[in-house]
Amino acid sequence: MTFRWYGDSDPVTLEYIRQIPGVTGIVSAIYDIPVGEAWPYEKIVELKEKIENHGLSLSVIESVPVHEDIKLGLPTRDQYIENYKTTIRNLAKAGVKIVCYNFMPVFDWTRSSLDYALEDGSTALIYEEEKVRQMNPLHGELKLPGWDTSYEDGQLKNLFQQYQHITEEDLWENLSYFIKAVIPAAENEQVKMAIHPDDPPWPIFGLPRIITNKENLERLINLYDSSFNGLCLCSGSLGVNSTNDIPELIRYFGKKGKVNFVHLRNIKIIGEKSFQESSHRSEDGSLDMYEIVRALRDIDFAGPARPDHGRMIWGEAGKPGYGLYDRALGAVYLNGMWETLTKEKKRIAFECNK
Ligand code: DNO
After folding, report:
1. Which pLDDT does position 93 carry in this prediction?
2. Which end of the chain lies in a sparser environment, N or C, as judged by fewer CB atoms within 10 Å?
């Protein structure tokens, strides 16, 4: 079980994370390097040692962001791809084995509000398609904490213009170009790449989104068949589309050896293309977390998982979605199910052998 940590500026400290029962790994990144530049080896080692000095290990880098020129397929992409490969080599040299990334144009995960009041007095992230349709990202109406990238308004306008003619198929071509260049390098270094699904998994603001469902995940892994070209299976991102059957996806891609990292969280579907985030428990949302964890147990998943967005509870102030308390409750709940399922499995195997 791992936990995301946003570095020294994160109000949730490594000291606190260490006190969550069963959490041993950290998911983090280097946040002060401009997107597209190679990450220096020394900085990676510095991050790793800081984490290890707190009795934890650096399990996953989330994310090494992909420069927009790569997603747009501009001629300048080759240099950015070279830098990406250098980063992978430096990460490998420092002992990092898993890298999470995404291929969403311009915006990473998107919500219409960050502090939607729930009945119990806590607040949660929410996405209402109607509200998002009315937003104009060019008017500075959209900035989410936790994004790896932020833009000046002028820059955004420029990007939107560049994406105007990019279709889903163009984006696939650009992803394919990136994968075919980067995965062989990752394979060489034994670094497992894990693409994060688009969140939400449908186009927003007229920008294409392609990592959205089983068919497209399959297409992605077929771009370069290797266990190093894998998935970050995020239950909450994919699960807001009820045709995505998360346990089935885990079994299907898990058996192919393509699930390299898992994000576990619950969401509650509240309407057409609309959802609110909830606590991790099955009863609190639309996803059956028991079935999801059971699928992971069944495939003998041995990689890292982390609780994902939590509500803000107990008066906590901080990064919406990334507070300490609710995510810690999520981690403990998930660990509890894991223990039960593991012991059940052993007991059944033992009884069958009698
Ligand atoms: C949101 C996260 C994403 C994720 C990136 C991976 O909370 O799951 O921001 O880190 O999409 O590149």
Report:
1. 98
2. C
Q: Which of 62, 143, 149, 220 to mutate to test the pocket of ligand 1 (most atoms within 8 A of CB)?
A: 62
What tens digit of pLDDT does each residue of 85-121 get? Answer: 999 999 999 999 999 999 999 999 999 999 999 999 9
pLDDT digits (tens, 9 = 90+) for 187-207: 999 999 999 999 999 999 999
Distance between CA atoms of residues 289 and 299, nearest Å = 16
**pTM for the complete prediction?**
0.96
CB 107 within 8 A of CB 137: yes
d(CA 71, CA 77): 8
pLDDT of residue 177 exceeding 90, the answer is yes
Q: Confirm or reject: Cβ of 62 under 6 Å from ligand 1.
A: yes
